[in-house]
Write a structure and sequence with these properties.
Helix content is 44%, strand content 14%. α1 (18-36) crosses α13 (305-324), α3 (91-101) crosses α4 and α6 (167-178) packs parallel to α7. The chain folds into 2 domains: 13-134 and 311-324, Aspartate/ornithine carbamoyltransferase (Rossmann fold), CATH 3.40.50.1370; 157-225 and 227-263 and 268-301, 3-Layer(aba) Sandwich (Rossmann fold). By secondary structure, it is an alpha/beta fold. The two termini are 16 Å apart. It is built from 13 helices and 9 strands. It comes from Sulfidibacter corallicola. Residues 155-322 form the Aspartate/ornithine carbamoyltransferase Asp/Orn-binding domain.
Length: 325
């Protein structure tokens, strides 16, 4: 079933119905099939896409650029030093100018209020490529990967382990609550999501039949899990907190023992990337205990992290086509 999403923003998956989210995922699976077959429908011919990046990115930038070009659109990268947003020109004025020139706007940055203000004034679809609060395009790729693996999303036992109050934990909980999953956040109680986010997700869960569990006990949280998911222990801009986070989160490192604790030989591992899983980065050399996942798991047979990374491109293509074409 097709849904008319033309003109819609994507700021958080909380704004989309379960059927709309599944439609975007299924569309992405079809776009992946078409691309692998060498078929490019060019649904976005003559469209122009503005890509605003306050925060640098590998996957988000490349996924938007390749997806846009595949579909016939022109993407324009606007880094933090390329435009005057919030410095010499207000967010609202920037949105109005870009909305007159571009057909869609992606924003990746810090404050969620910025992408909300862009959406309020642009007059064209605005997509959240990441803010401090939410990362909806990543969750679409995550759930696409899960559906490719298991064939369904409802009832999937999904354990997010580590820093439970960041944008990934918030967004995964929203998506899982919408789609009827058995979702667990496994984290120290001091790093649970904000109460308001929890309450909102419990309401979504009541409507979908999902369950949401927050626990600081690893064995309880990962039991029977189909998916183990983690993220870095200190997000961009939190580097000064790394030593404290290591001390707090070391018991939550994803390793072979944790994967065994699931009791599920078919459990897969996911990560939004980038990841500290070996000593080949500057920060890992400075802080050897920063590894939120061991390389044994990250590079092992349960890992689907690079399928997941590729799926950013297909899901972003689905979002752009659905809201623009």
């Amino acid at each position: 079933m097709a849904f008319n999403l033309k003109g819609r923003h994507l700021l958080t998956l909380a704004d989309y119905t379960p059927k709309e989210i599944e439609y975007l995922i299924d569309s992405a699976i079809e776009f992946k099939r078409l691309k692998n077959a060498g078929v490019f429908p060019k649904n976005l011919q003559n469209k122009n896409i503005a890509l605003i990046f306050e925060k640098p990115s590998t996957r988000t930038r490349c996924a938007f650029v390749v997806a846009a070009i595949d579909e016939g659109a022109h993407p324009e990268y606007l880094g933090k030093n390329d435009i005057q947003i919030g410095k010499k020109e207000s967010i609202a004025d920037t949105a109005k100018v870009l909305g007159r020139m571009f057909d869609g706007i992606q924003f990746r940055g810090f404050h969620h209020e910025t992408v909300e203000e862009l959406a309020a004034h642009a007059g064209v679809p605005v997509w959240n490529g990441l803010t401090d609060s939410y990362h909806p395009t990543q969750i679409l790729a995550d759930f696409m990967t899960v559906k490719e693996e298991f064939g369904h999303l409802r009832g999937i036992r999904f354990a997010y382990v580590g820093d439970g109050r960041n944008n990934m934990a918030n967004s995964l909980m929203i998506g899982a609550a919408k789609l009827g999953m058995d979702f667990r956040i496994v984290a120290p109680a001091s790093l649970y999501p904000e109460a308001a986010v929890q309450e909102r997700c419990q309401a979504f869960a009541a409507a979908s039949g999902a369950s949401i569990t927050l626990t600081d006990k690893v064995d309880e949280g990962v039991a029977d899990a189909d998916v183990i998911y983690t993220d870095v222990w200190a997000s961009m801009g939190e580097e000064d907190q790394i030593p404290a986070r290591i001390a707090l989160l070391k018991p939550y490192q994803v390793n072979a023992k944790m994967m065994e604790q699931t009791g599920n030989p078919n459990c897969i591992f996911l990560h939004c990337l980038p990841s500290f899983h070996d000593d080949r980065t500057q920060l890992a050399q400075t802080y050897p205990d920063i590894l939120e996942v061991t390389d044994e798991v990250f590079s092992g047979p349960a890992s689907r992290v690079f399928d997941e990374a590729e799926n950013r491109m297909h899901t972003i293509k689905a979002v752009m086509v659905a809201t623009l074409a």
